[in-house]
Amino acid sequence: MKIQLLPSTFNEAGEATPEQRLTCYVIDDRVAVDAGSIALSVTEEQRRTVRDIIVTHPHMDHIATLPIFIDDLFGELTEPIRVYATQEVIDVLENDIFNWTVYPRFSELKNDKSKVMEYVPFRVGEEFRIAHLRAVAVNVNHIVPTVGLITTDGEHTLAFSSDTAETEEFWQLVNRTPRIDALLIEASFPDYLAQLAEVSRHFTPASLKKELRKMKKHKDADILTVHIKPSYREQVVEELKALKIPKLRIMEPGETYEW
Predict the structure, then answer these.
(1) What are the Cα distances from residue 13, in Å, to 10, 16, 234?
(2) Which of 96, 126, 212, 228 is deepest in the core (most CB within 10 A)?
(3) Is pLDDT above 90 for 98?
């Protein structure tokens, strides 16, 4: 299983930089988790193969270029882009994004070969299939309804915290999952902004260290930190490294990680 955090920020030469302003992960060049930068940064191969997208929650940094991705592909799709989400998130997407004002309601449109978009609702706690993967969603602690995920190809398994602060159900699911190869978990703000992190439901390095004590199993899993706010990246990275947590590292946009 391989995963890539798509870049979302570029320098004057058009080269990707480490700052993460938008969130989109691509698994095995086939399935996306969130769609913040999907239209900006997929490779040509991924553009041809990614047809299944999980949306963990409807904040703009997680959905920003989803409409543009579908729009770009409109005429060439031979199967719809399938958007997997809870019904609550689907309702937000339909009411606030794909509403004929911000963007067309692609779920009602076809090209000459296929529908161009369809929703696939899932329920928290119930396993669902997405392409070649199986996944389970779990509620996490964010300021809008948000899910974390456990996803597996049958051999390797990844856990995504999504955006969250202190939470419980996610760790219960992680601890009862037989195998976790990697945990992707957020660390948004530096420690001195702990109050802001608390009210916006995010982690600092200090609160992340405390939270990771809830992972009672899978001590050999890789821990990849994500969702670092660009304005504070240098300080957050320094504080994360100072934790000296074994196997914890910063997930770099554009780099491919494989298990």
Answers:
(1) 8, 9, 22
(2) 228
(3) yes
Q: How confident is the model at residue 38 (pLDDT cuts 50, 70, 90)?
A: very high
Which tokens go with 176?
Answer: 């009862």
pTM above 0.90?
yes
Q: Phi and psi for 123 in degrees, rounded to 5?
A: -110, 140
Domain 123-252 has CATH 3.40.50.150: no
Q: Which fold has domain 1-121?
A: Metallo-beta-lactamase; Chain A (3.60.15)
- pLDDT for 14 equals 87
Domains of the chain, residue spans: 1-121, 123-252
